Amino acid sequence: GATMAESVVSSGAWAARSVEELDAMDARDRRDRRERLERQQEAEAREAARARLDALQAKDDADALRAGVELLKELVGSYGQAHLVEGWEEGWADRPSASQRRLMLQLLRLNGCLAGGIFGYISRARTLLSASADGTNPLEGYVPSVPDGISLDLASADFVKYESTGADAMGACAFVLVAGGLGERLGYSGIKVSLPPELLTGSCYLQLYLEHIAALARNGNGGKLPERTLLVIMTSDDTDGPTRQLLLIEEYFKTGMTEQHVKLVKQQKVPCLADGAGSLALDPSDHFQILTKPHGHGDVHTLLLTSGLAEELLGSGVSHLIFFQDTNALVFAGLTAALGVSISRNLLLNSISVKRRAGDASGAILKLTRASGGGDRTTITTNVEYSQLDALLRNVPARSTGTGAGDVADESGWSPFPGNCNQLIVSLPEYVQVLRTSGGVMPEFVNPKYVDASRSSFKSPTRLECMMQDLPWLLPADANVSFTSFDADLFYSPVKNSLADARKKAASGLSAACAATGESSLFRFNAALMRAAGAQVESGGERSVSGIPVMMEPQLVLSPAFRSTVSSAMHKLGGAQIKITARSSLVLDGEDIKVEQLDLDGAARISCVLGASVTIRKLTVHNKGRVLRELSQEEMASPATPELLKLRGYTFDIVEERRIQFDEPGVYVIEE
């Protein structure tokens, strides 16, 4: 009976639940019908909105087409651009074809992004092209002299003093990286900032830069990253997408930075010019497109203004802006000291420079004083490009000969004029005011390649260009402008030539400026720093590797976390008993690694995460290490060999390496 009762009770409960479920199902049906009706109404509203947008777009397209027609008519009628419509049927303005509309829309885009519009661009081009054809020297009337500046040696008393001042101010700085180039000139198919400056860690340039900036920002902000823009990267059509992808895939290289800290601005291309009359050049493969090329890295100043980033940085309390270029791994070695010079001397603009080899294909920092001619600027300290330098200096008696010998060395064996590195430190408040006043428009130049001495026709279309380092021409006449100079062998080693071109330059006694010399210079700087801290670091001397003279031994890498500044690294190494043989390789990667005693004859890598404190109380590593091996002809020709090795001509074979890694925060002591 009990079982039956229970059964009945269960059946009654089921019946009650069935009624409740039916009510719930009915409620769900009503809700579903209501939601379907709402979705239908939303879809109809979206369709109506889309129709309105399509109508507006059609109106915008019609307006754009009318504007494009008027722009093209003005170019043809008033600016001598009749060749753009050559062969077009009469009445094209009323019924333009799809290809003709494409040309008009491109002209509209160019008109919108060019300073002064496309008419202003053509007018400036004609003025500059006329001066070029006449052989006019834009520096005519200026007499060059060596400007006033400061020269700093690694770890000297002055270096340490200025670096301390700069480190205290680094929390109020932001950086600008000019990274619009691909690596084709180097023999590399990717973007240049994705190349590794050294093979021991394989970290790319962009990672190196973000790690340096993060370390400096934390040091200047109580150990935390400021919640503002720290780095602006100027990209191009070629590099914008790959740069964004690299940052996202690598998660900003685990530096703690995000899109809040790193902003990208993309420069646009400018029209090419077919002749001295300023005729816009059509693309040879598409006569309904204007041929365009990059305007030059001077666009970075324009973009900082038009993007609003310069004003944003000023509003967030940034005091100084530091500009640098894409493939110099040593840029941060002297940067903090140079910032200290800027602050101590109250400079509006400070050019970071190096000793320059006379005749080298690099610009120089000169003081120019107007001896004759018009103009309201009597003196200026600025870069002069190497293509203009020799002719300008032939008007100045050389110290050694008493005659105008041109771009020659003085008694020291170097040019008396410091070399330009395209690394600038500007005081942001004054810089923003200059951008406001000038509209961010940089001085332009044109450099056509003429067919013959008549200078009447070009070998190929040219365009107007501008350079980042020409900023002094926009500054007030009384602006405080100077330079800070460092040893080129330790502080500046750009990577800009292929291996084949580097061999030719090296054979001519010029800087090879290739991947091999860039890597060698990084090792050499770290060795010099460790020696300055008292370490015994043997040198393997200079030797030829794949036809390039380099100093590859020992191979030393001090990461940005370990070496945020020279002084911080020396503090971690100072007073230690360190002995490193020439054949050795060493990586120290961590913010809080202190070395007390290290005996290295081989290869070692010691790293720790942020929050880990490591003391190397006593460590002896003797092993077979890494061996540098030149690539064979077969390896150089093989598609299986990575490009980053081919552009060096060598690799490092790891025979034996000791690795000690601390992946968790804590306090650790190595004693063995």
UniProtKB/TrEMBL annotation:
High-level lineage: Eukaryota, Haptista, Haptophyta, Prymnesiophyceae, Isochrysidales
Cofactors demanded by this protein: Mg(2+); Mn(2+)
Protein name: UTP-monosaccharide-1-phosphate uridylyltransferase
Keywords: Coiled coil, Nucleotidyltransferase, Transferase
PANTHER family the record matches: UDP- GLUCOSE PYROPHOSPHORYLASE, UDP-SUGAR PYROPHOSPHORYLASE
Biological process annotations from GO: UDP-N-acetylglucosamine biosynthetic process
Native source species: Chrysotila carterae (Marine alga)
Family note: Belongs to the USP family.
One Pfam family it belongs to: UDPGP
